[in-house]
Amino acid sequence: MYKKIINFLATGAHIGDLPKMPGTFGTLWGIPVVFILSCYPPYIYVAATIVFFIAASFISGEAERNYNQSDPGRIIIDEVVGITIAFFLIPFTLVNVIIVFLLFRFFDILKPFPIKQLDKRVKGGFGIVLDDAVAGIFANIVMHLIGFIR
Which residues make Cβ contacts (< 8 Å) with residue 95, sequence separation at least 6? Predict the structure, then answer.
């Protein structure tokens, strides 16, 4: 039962088990989470994101052991953490949802320095979540730099 709960959470209610683009669908799964968090003050957003990062790291590590595979693509809870970080202090508007989504996926897929290095060197649940968190930070910085905040 424990393994089933872990796998359910890690795969975003089995969205990660879809045969194509689990990371993209996992990121979409994170949009409602961002919407809910955007209703709260920044200190709540940050606290919830930190708790979520820690929980996702634990869940990802357990799921990785359950699947007996290093960083299986079906684990998508890390995408939810990443998009949550990408949206920090970004108003939740349709335009911003589209742009942040595209930026986050860009950084998550291409893995520019240091994301690729983190992905390769940091293992376990923490490593699974860390590269997506950094991709989220990159997307957030770009959003602030280009001024799409509305």
Answer: 148, 150
Q: Which helix (H) or strand (E) holds 110?
A: helix 94-110
> How many domains does the structure of the chain reveal?
1
pLDDT digits (tens, 9 = 90+) for 56-105: 999 999 999 999 988 888 999 999 999 999 999 999 999 999 999 999 99
Q: Which residues are CB-contacts of 129 (< 8 A; sequence separation ≥ 6)?
A: 53, 56, 57, 60, 77, 78, 81
Give me the domain span that covers residue 40.
Answer: 2-146
- The Cα-based distances of 83 to 96, 121, 150 in angstroms read 12, 22, 18
Identity of residue 87: F
SS3 29: helix
Letter for the amino acid at 48? A
Question: CB of 107 within 8 A of CB of 75?
Answer: no
